[in-house]
Design a protein that fits this description.
Structural class: alpha/beta
Bound molecules: S-adenosylmethionine
CATH class of one domain: Alpha Beta
Order of helices and strands: HHHEHEHEEHEHHHEHHE
CATH architecture of one domain: 3-Layer(aba) Sandwich
Distance between the termini: 40 Å
Shape: globular
Helix content: 25-40%
CATH superfamily of one domain: Vaccinia Virus protein VP39
Length: 258
């Protein structure tokens, strides 16, 4: 079953606010890419523009957001009052730009949704400017959760099928690097970032009710109801309860060959 981003589009931003760590990571990525006004950044699977708009505010480059889901793009367009970003309904497998025209391609929380990852990486490689000596060079930057994140996810205790569903969706870093190489990308660099934060039980209940991660929408309905009921009972008993959420991200950068 595929997750429905059309359904969660209206509440997506409220349920998944950008953290200070996300912003710092965004800034570091742009610092490294060292883009100029003539460069193009493409965020593939941009969704509601949660990252695209802060990204556009931080770079002089032209920015394009590509997503398959019209409702997610509607939310993004409505937020982009200055018209800073070019929003395009399209697919990771066929980006709407000519060969060698992008300085940076970004995929954040998207690779787990792609059935043909190597094909999408090959397409990213096609649109990236050819590498060359000197200068920072064009690159693909991927942010995704690691298998360890899936195994240790804080909601697994309430919804045991989450890990079962996500295990095949979130590949090992080694599998991703192999696929990137197969797609013709090189200079592959991997960083693993850990993030721990405490979540108030009321926030957890709101997020689960809004099915803030796509996997919650893929659970057997009874399991979803029972897990939510347990969390709601905890909230009713004691609003001061907090849950500890530990996230583990793989940040992967790859470049086209010279
Ligand atoms: C989990 S959301 C992440 C959105 C955004 N990157 C963020 O971090 O807020 C994944 C997005 O990828 C989009 N998507 C899924 N498959 C895609 C594909 N083949 N090509 C382009 N976008 C895709 C979905 O529609 C959804 O908006």
């Amino acid at each position: 079953m595929s997750p429905s981003f059309a359904k969660i589009a209206p509440t997506y931003d409220a349920l998944r606010p950008l953290s200070a760590v996300d912003r710092a990571r965004l800034e570091a990525m742009l610092r490294e890419a060292a883009l100029g006004a003539e460069d193009l950044v493409i965020e593939v699977g941009c969704g509601t523009g949660r990252l695209t708009l802060p990204l556009a505010a931080l770079t002089p480059a032209r920015v394009m957001g590509v997503d398959t889901e019209a409702r997610m793009l509607d939310v993004a367009r409505a937020k982009d009052v200055a018209g800073r970003v070019q929003w395009v309904r399209g697919s990771a497998y066929r980006l709407p730009v000519a060969d060698g025209t992008a300085g940076l391609v970004v995929m954040v929380m998207v690779v787990h949704l792609l059935r043909q990852r190597t094909r999408a990486f090959r397409e990213a490689r096609r649109v990236l400017e050819p590498g060359g000596p000197g200068g920072p060079g064009a690159r693909l930057c991927i942010w995704t959760f690691t298998p360890r994140h899936v195994e240790e996810f804080y909601l697994n205790a309430y919804f045991p099928s989450l890990a079962v569903i996500d295990r095949p969706r979130f590949p090992a870093v080694e599998a991703l690097t192999q696929e990137l190489r197969r797609a013709g990308l090189s200079e592959i660099r991997v960083e693993v970032h850990e993030e721990v934060r405490r979540m108030e039980i009321a926030d957890v209940v709101d997020r689960v009710r809004g099915r803030y991660i796509s996997t919650l929408g893929m659970l057997p309905p009874l399991e979803y109801r029972l897990g939510l009921q347990r969390l709601e009972e905890m909230l009713a008993q004691d609003r001061t309860i907090t849950l500890s959420q530990r996230s583990e991200w793989a940040i992967i950068t790859a470049q086209p060959p010279p």
